[in-house]
Amino acid sequence: MFGQRLRLARKKAGLSMQGLADRTSPKVTAQAISKYEAEKMNPSSSVLVGLSKALGVSLDFLMGGQVEALVGVEFRKHSSTSAKDRAHAEAIVIEKLEDYLAIEDILEIDLPGDPFGDLVTERIDAWDDLDKKARALRKQWKLGNDPIPSMSRLLEDKGIKVIEADFAERFDGLACEVKRSGDLPNTDVVVVSSRTNVERKRFNLAHELAHRVVRQTGNATIKLEKAMNRFAGAFLIPTDHLIEEAGQARSGMTHMELMRLKRLYGVSAAAMLMRLGQVGILPQSSIDYAFRTYARKWRSSEPDPIRDDEGFGAFEHPQRFERLVWRALGEQLISPVRAAQMLRLSLATVEDNIRG
Fold first, then answer.
1. Where are the beta strands (DSSP E) in the chain?
2. What burial letters (b/e) apply to 141-176, b meaning 16+ CB within 10 Å?
């Protein structure tokens, strides 16, 4: 595992083996690094510390024993992403997961049960079936029809790890299954970019939730990613609730009404417009016209955006990991130094929060 982590960290840093050797102190050769990565030789403790500093990663990342591999990594990305971008993103995720899973072990937290039951399917016969699945999941989770205050909190409560990370602008986030070391069961993680706006972040989380319920469509006429978007829209914006808010069979809608609706459900204006067409409140011809004209730029520039400190923006941040760290610290299961390292805070800040 050390060899895999070293190779990933080196790719994240954009270094060749010789480049890493030149940067490491105490001195090490490129040949030695090649043997480390091939698991043919292990570094001394001093070299290990030197590699960690040269690569800008923690020793926990290089030597961690919680995460064996990320399986089925699905990036939400733009077309210009590079291998270095992917390595950088995966390294960030693994480093955060090592801490996350370690703190759960320290607190001896029970593993959650299956939150989906018999709702999981690999066959979708019609687009409306996705709305039915979303409605059934809301019913099973007792969510009612109201807008969901925090998708992050909802997924965390259902056992899905949610991590927010500062990715490059080319990434919105990623989702994958985490293969754990030993006999521990796998877990799922969704990672969102801190640079992504609130509207898109919520939709991304709902999209990844859809992947947990609808594994395949089994239907050549319904593409999987489009199906996930349809499920996400239906989950965030239930049909009955939307009809109560907007009315039925409208011939048109003002800009102000559309902005109110997007803020009511915490979604983008483009997603809101799509949903109005899916439900049949606006005719498809109006939706098509909108995206050819005034809504054409909404996919790249969000109108009337929700700020990070207002409404949904104030709640749409994963908080479970941070809560667990402070809990372990309060129970004196970890030291202030360890807590500071996990929370990426200074020791002085942690000690101030201990004393109050």
1. 67-77, 161-165, 171-180, 187-193
2. eeeeeebbebbbbbbbebebbbbbbebbebbbbbbb
> What is the rounded CA–CA span in Å between residue 273 and residue 278?
9
Half-sphere exposure of 95 (CA within 13 A, CB side): 24
List, for residues 230-242, the tens digit of each pLDDT value: 999 999 999 999 9
pLDDT at 278: 97
Averaged confidence pLDDT in the chain = 90
- DSSP secondary structure of 211-249: HHHBS----TTS-HHHHHHHHHHHHHS-HHHHHHHH-SS
Is-cis flag, bond preceding 26, omega within 30?
yes
**pTM of structure:** 0.84
* Segment 40-74, tens digit of pLDDT: 999 999 999 999 999 888 887 888 778 888 887 77
Count H helices and E strands in the chain, helices first.
Answer: 17, 4
Task: Return the SS3 of 354.
Answer: helix
pLDDT at 77: 60
Q: Give dist(CA 275, CA 267) in Å, integer.
A: 10
Kindly report, residue by residue over 224-272, the tens digit of the pLDDT: 999 999 999 999 999 999 999 999 999 999 999 999 999 999 999 999 9
d(CA 70, CA 180): 9
Q: Which of 93, 104, 87, 95 is nearest to 193 (CA)?
A: 93
DSSP E strands, 106-195 = 161-165, 171-180, 187-193
